[in-house]
Amino acid sequence: MAEPALIDELVAKMTEERAKLLSVLEAMTEERASTPPKPGEWNQKQQMSHLCEMETAYRAWVQRALEEDGANVDGIRGDRPAIPLEKANEHRLEDHLAELRRQREQTMELISGLNPADFDRKATNQIFGTLTIMQWLRSYYRHDRMHYDQVRGEEPSYKPQYAGGGEPDQRRS
Predict the structure, then answer these.
(1) Nearest-5° angle of CA 147, CA 153, CA 156?
(2) In contact, 18 and 141? CB cutoff 8 Å
(3) Beta bridge mates, 136
(4) Whole-angstrom distance, CA of residue 105 vs CA of residue 22
(5) 103, 173, 133, 11: CA torsion to nearest 10
(6) 111 closest CA partner among 13, 38, 39
(7) Mean pLDDT across the stretch 17-41?
(8) Which residue, among 20, 13, 19, has the nearest Cα to 152 in the 3D structure?
(9) How far apart are CA 41 and CA 66, in angstroms?
(10) What is the pLDDT of residue 159?
């Protein structure tokens, strides 16, 4: 069972990392948000859409683990966010920022409804293996941290640990 201090730490880190990411994105011009930080990488609008898509996926995986401890979540994507990756460049920066905030609000509502024992429930997928709900939720702030670095044109200080070793293509088809 998760200690209250660990849950508080999770919420604090999620809030802190998202605030850092939002501050850098809010300072961008529309042009900068549409330009990749490095050739061949997603631009910031695409990264924001990806963040929202993964936010819904992680949330769906957590919800599935709440329904069935040990659930396999392969193929579970979560609700489609308002701005999907393939339409990222068709939307204004302020729309992306609003969607990032809306998605995180939903996630924080989910967390606030969990009891300490829920954080030990598990879900499995081919990308990350078997994780507890606490570990799935920690993925949020680590993912934010990784994209914070990428948006700033830096090498990410955090790199996910994939079950298969290499990074899978997580773009929606």
Answers:
(1) 45
(2) yes
(3) none
(4) 14
(5) -30
(6) 13
(7) 93
(8) 20
(9) 35
(10) 64
